Amino acid sequence: MRFAPSLALAAVLLAGTVTLPLPSPAHAEATMPREATIIVMGEADATAAPDLAIVTLGVSKTAKSAREALDANNTAMAAVLKALKDDGIAEKDLQTSGFSIQPQYAYPENPDGTPKTPELTGYTVNNALTIRVRELAKLGDILDKSVTLGVNQGGDIQFTNTDPASAIDTARKTAVKNAIAKARTIAESASVNLGRIVEITENTSRPGPGPVMRMSMAKEAADSVPVAAGENTYTVNVNVTFAIKQ
Question: Would you report the helix, strand and coil content of the chain in percent, each value rounded to 5?
């Protein structure tokens, strides 16, 4: 039995269907011409006077026994806390940031210079307190009173801003304007037309709280510790990619 030529051809096509692969999206994207762009960086700073000081103060007491050292430390720290609260420092702005009890040893030597067995001589109790001072005008008096009442460690002072958003926004706007001006200059110099913004990325550098000063704690404190708060600087960097108009 013979098939008509057209039926035979159809049977062959059905039996051996040929599928041509379509280009993958990645391949298609790779073969597309790359968009011409200009990439620039804009930078700007904004300053703000600090409105908050973070102070770390500590009491260290040494005695023959751990109990005696702890009692002496507790007495001094209780007096410091009371004075701070009397000066208007709120409970939420007072935080114990460190506490330790450490044995103290003497390290005697034999006449020939070889070491003897260490001898326990006493115990040292350290108690550190972190204070947030929101009225900077009181900071000098607070430091002075604290030393008078027994603070003999610490003295790290960090100035910061409770809400730096306004300063950062100012720096951000200036940084973007700076980037646009750079891109226009580059486009004009290259005799091309600046197009749409393709991408913007930002990096913000915040200073606070950064260490500003460290005091040497001593019983002979001045009537009022001189303190200079200065300014905090916030830096914003933006990277902006512009298309070049064809």
Answer: 35, 40, 30
Question: According to the CATH classification, is domain 31-48+165-206+237-245 in 3.30.540.10?
Answer: no
Contact status, residue 124 vs residue 69, Cβ threshold 8 Å:
yes
Can you tell me the mean pLDDT for 224-234?
85
Stated as kind and residue range, the H or E segment containing 43 is strand 37-48
Q: Which residues contact 120 (CB under 8 A, 6 or more apart)?
A: 103, 104, 105
Q: What is the model's pTM? A: 0.68
Place of tokens 């900071």: 139
Per DSSP, the three-state class of 157 is strand
Q: How many CB atoms lie within 10 A of CB 33?
A: 5
Predicted pLDDT at 12: 41
Contact call for residues 202 and 236 (beta carbons, < 8 A): yes
Fold of 52-160: Alpha-Beta Plaits (3.30.70)
Structure tokens at 222: 């001045």
Those residues with Cβ within 8 angstroms of residue 215's Cβ, 6 or more apart along the chain or in another chain: 143, 155, 157, 225
pLDDT at 246 over 80: no
Letter string b/e over residues 75-92, b meaning 16 or more CB atoms within 10 A of that residue's CB: ebbebbbebbeeeebeee
Q: Which has the closest alpha carbon to 128: 91, 93, 158, 95?
A: 95
Parse the chain into domains and list their residue ranges. 31-48+165-206+237-245, 52-160
Q: By the 8 A CB rule, do 58 and 129 touch? A: yes
State how far the Cα of 31 lies from the Cα of 19, in Å rounded to an integer. 22
